[in-house]
């Protein structure tokens, strides 16, 4: 157990709850207070305003008030195919008004290793499972893409550097300073580590949304989508000495999107914004289908780990074998086994939901575009 809050933290929560976090203090549109803030990269299987899009909106609002420095948004196939996700990420940076501050970097279109025959068999065996991009037709050109509710980006382009190369270069530029919010299949990050193993001791930490430690999976019976999608990439990273924290299904299963929270975002007292309008479109009725919140917990934990009211730690490994055990996380509480992580990894099992939702709603209803201070 960890202490829940400090006096200063209560004040920040109050600001977030009233939508004032991004409007407190002075500043101007060319503000750069964020440049000295803690540095992060988001590596995401991006969606317009599902969990990845919500995470991005929250993070850029924190960036506006100098609480975090988002160095870049990397995209990887997971929820959808890369081309679709890139289009949605480009629109997101325009929607938030950060296109001159946050670049979008295209990454891997396929996992490091995969067996399509096995994937199709798993899909047939788990008809209620969520298999992300494998459930969709792969687009090959712009005309195959579905536009976000507010249309495609009008001017923003992908950065020329590939996601893995961007990670390598950025970590070397800021040694021991960069946290990776790993909220998709970690193919890009694993590729970076494989290509440039010298960055391993230079990465400050990884915070994942992924895995299922002691609960059923949401893809096949044992695997959570992000880690099921590319278990070889996960295993590559677990076997490093990078400090790592996992926010698995064990805790996200306990953070449901309720009708009350939904309504407080789509009908805020301060008036609708581009984010709340798209949120309404993307999440209409989600509370009625037992939808939980996932990736947004990572930025909350990064911003202040007291959101995690209960954690455990263990040596972790993952089954990379194609089939019904693919993505199964192996948890060793006491003694590491061959192939498992060389050090214990913390994973979160309980969140401070009340304060999280104040934080969540406050940031998602703040003014758009982001006001920089």
TrEMBL record:
Enzyme Commission number(s) from the entry: 3.2.2.1
Cellular component GO terms, alphabetical: cytosol
UniProt xrefs under InterPro entries: Inosine/uridine_hydrolase_dom (IPR001910), IUNH (IPR023186), Ribo_hydro-like (IPR036452)
Keyword Signal among record annotations: yes
Region forming the signal peptide: 1-22
Inosine/uridine-preferring nucleoside hydrolase domain location: 40-358
Keyword Cell membrane annotated: no
Keywords attached to this entry: Glycosidase, Hydrolase, Signal
Listed name of the protein: Inosine-uridine preferring nucleoside hydrolase
Lineage: superkingdom: Bacteria
GO BP annotation list: purine nucleoside catabolic process
GO MF terms held by the record: purine nucleosidase activity
């Amino acid at each position: 157990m960890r202490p829940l809050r400090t006096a200063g933290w209560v004040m920040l929560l109050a600001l977030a709850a009233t939508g004032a976090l991004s409007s407190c203090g002075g500043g101007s549109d060319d503000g750069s207070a964020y440049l000295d803030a803690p540095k992060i990269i988001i590596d995401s299987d991006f969606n317009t305003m599902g969990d990845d899009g919500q995470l991005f909106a929250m993070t850029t609002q924190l960036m506006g008030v100098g609480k975090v420095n988002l160095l870049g948004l990397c995209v990887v196939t997971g929820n959808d195919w890369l081309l679709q996700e890139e289009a949605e990420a480009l629109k997101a940076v325009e929607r938030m008004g950060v296109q001159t501050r946050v670049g979008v970097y295209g990454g891997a279109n396929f996992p490091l290793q995969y067996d399509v025959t096995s994937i199709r068999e798993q899909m047939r065996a788990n008809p209620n499972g969520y298999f992300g991009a494998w459930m969709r037709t792969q687009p090959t050109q712009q005309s195959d893409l579905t536009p976000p509710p507010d249309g495609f980006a009008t001017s923003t382009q992908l950065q020329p550097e590939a996601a893995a190369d961007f990670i390598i270069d950025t970590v070397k530029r800021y040694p021991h300073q960069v946290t990776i919010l790993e909220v998709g299949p970690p193919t890009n990050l694993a590729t970076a580590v494989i290509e440039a193993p010298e960055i391993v001791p230079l990465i400050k930490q990884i915070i994942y949304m992924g895995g299922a430690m002691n609960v059923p999976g949401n893809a096949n019976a044992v695997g959570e989508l992000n880690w099921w999608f590319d278990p070889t990439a996960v295993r590559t990273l677990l076997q490093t000495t990078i400090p790592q924290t996992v926010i698995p299904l064990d805790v996200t299963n306990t953070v449901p999107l309720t009708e009350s929270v939904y309504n407080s975002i789509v009908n805020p007292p301060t008036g609708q914004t581009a984010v709340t309008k798209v949120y309404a479109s993307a999440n209409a009725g989600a509370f009625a289908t037992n939808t939980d919140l996932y990736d947004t917990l990572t930025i909350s934990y990064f911003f202040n780990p007291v959101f995690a009211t209960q954690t455990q730690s263990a040596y972790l490994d993952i089954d990379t074998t194609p089939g019904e055990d693919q993505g199964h996380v192996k948890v060793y509480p006491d003694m590491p086994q061959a192939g498992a992580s060389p050090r214990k990894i913390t994973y979160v099992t309980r969140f401070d939901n009340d304060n999280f939702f104040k934080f969540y709603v406050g940031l998602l209803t703040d003014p758009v575009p982001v006001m920089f201070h």
